[in-house]
Write a structure and sequence with these properties.
70% of the residues lie in helices and 3% in strands. The chain is mainly alpha-helical.
Amino acid sequence: MTDTVLILAWLIFAHLVADFVLQNDWIAINKATGGRTGWLALGLHGFHVGLCLVPVVLAFGLPGIVYLVLVVVTHMIVDSWKVQATRQAEAAGREQARARIARTGATAESGLGSAWTPWPGLLFLADQALHLTFALVGWLVILQGVALLPQFVDFVNRVLGSWDRATVHAVVLTGVAVLSLFIVNTRGAYYFILALVSPRELPPDERAGAAAVGAGVEPAIAPAIDPPAADTPAAVASSSAASVATPAPAFPAVVPAVRETPGGAVPAPSVAVPSGAPAKIGATIGALERLLIVAFILVGAEAAVGFVIAAKTLARFKQLDDRGFAEYYLLGTLASVSVAVFTALVAQAALQTIP
């Protein structure tokens, strides 16, 4: 039982390293742009996924190669789907915002922006779930029951020498679980919360035009400008910039109506949300909060989790009078705590298999 859990834990760890350690911002932005650059970025990410699975090939031989190809190909397909689905969700959110503003005339409905939608965050979770499903089902169909190569077994035996195998398995499984928890609750949770709580707002001219339609006023017609093609770097940069926002709850800072990002000027909701140094402080606080929650659950001190959340909420108590900040803070905090609790329980279940 411990061997099976160890293998599965290692496969999950390999996925986390490929997705959140080796994948840099250039790959993340360009892998769905299409063209030569897009294929290069997507191929590089696929190479990283395969690189993390090389030990599977060394351990299982030909079945390991089949497994590696399956995981790499499905990983690249799922990544492409997720980016396209996220763009469609954001476009649908903007369209719903236009219709709602035209119907009600209200241009400020939420601290997260009139075009906010939970779908980018949910699609991030779906993306991760599909990656892990293909990895684990592929193991179940291709590798489960396949004997390790004798050469690999001999090599491991020579390395371990006279060390007790049960002790080695316990140490390795514990190490893999701890490292996986660290990656998920720092890098993985950061990107999930970023996708979920990013304020999304219509550009000022579109908000004004929709509000004018709702008020029965003929809006001014701006010169027609063709948007960049959907598969060009300019379009992707614009789409990525439209989603840029603070990664996690932090101290508030007033955000101007237009915010400069690497992709250009992006409309931002006129509410107090973190930016700059406060955003980095907030991201660090969120990571430490999740790591503390994980540690408390693993040592059986679940009651202490409430004190962590209470202390954080107490520090923000006065700011919660601002509805915009309250929505932002509560959504980010609930997502953060959920990631920490879920991953801690999964790791705890894996560690309990150690004799």
